[in-house]
């Protein structure tokens, strides 16, 4: 269970639809990248997700179909943040 404190907001910069899941990429400010690594848990729009990739300030999360179905993450659009 995620027990951290929300530290800020970030803009959704990319959505990549795949056959069985979707990848969201958010752009984090530098101060939120300190200590962040692949596999870490991060709150994304109130849902605890696992970081799947870090590329500079862009951080990726894979969202399974069930997550998209039962949360509002499936309704998000690029640019929201």
Give me the secondary-structure topology:
Blueprint: E1 11-17, E2 21-27, E3 41-44, E4 47-55, E5 58-64, H1 65-70
Antiparallel strand pairs: 1-2, 2-5, 3-4, 4-5
Domain Lumazine-binding: 1-81
GO molecular function, one term: riboflavin synthase activity
Catalytic activity: 2 6,7-dimethyl-8-(1-D-ribityl)lumazine + H(+) = 5-amino-6-(D-ribitylamino)uracil + riboflavin
Task: Give a quick summary of the entry.
The chain has 81 residues and is mainly beta.
Biggest sheet strand line-up: 1-2-5-4-3
SSE class: mainly beta
Architecture, according to CATH? Answer: Beta Barrel
Supply the CATH class. Mainly Beta
Helix content: under 10%
Element string (H = helix, E = strand):
EEEEEH
Overall geometry? globular
Tally of individual helices: 1
Major β-sheet profile: 5 strands, antiparallel
Q: How much β-strand is present in the residues? A: 35-45%
Mean pLDDT: 91
For the record, the count of structural domains works out to 1
Unreliable residue runs: none
Q: What is the rounded Rg?
A: 12 Å
Terminal CA distance: 24 Å
The fold-level CATH name is Elongation Factor Tu (Ef-tu), domain 3
Tally the beta strands.
5
């Amino acid at each position: 269970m995620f027990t951290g404190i929300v530290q800020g907001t970030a803009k959704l910069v990319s959505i990549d639809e795949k056959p069985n899941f979707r990848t969201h990429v958010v752009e984090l400010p530098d101060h939120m990248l300190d200590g962040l690594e692949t596999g870490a848990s991060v709150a994304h729009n109130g849902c605890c997700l696992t970081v799947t990739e870090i590329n500079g300030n862009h951080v990726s999360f894979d969202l399974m179909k069930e997550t998209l179905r039962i949360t509002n993450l499936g309704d998000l659009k690029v640019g929201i943040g």
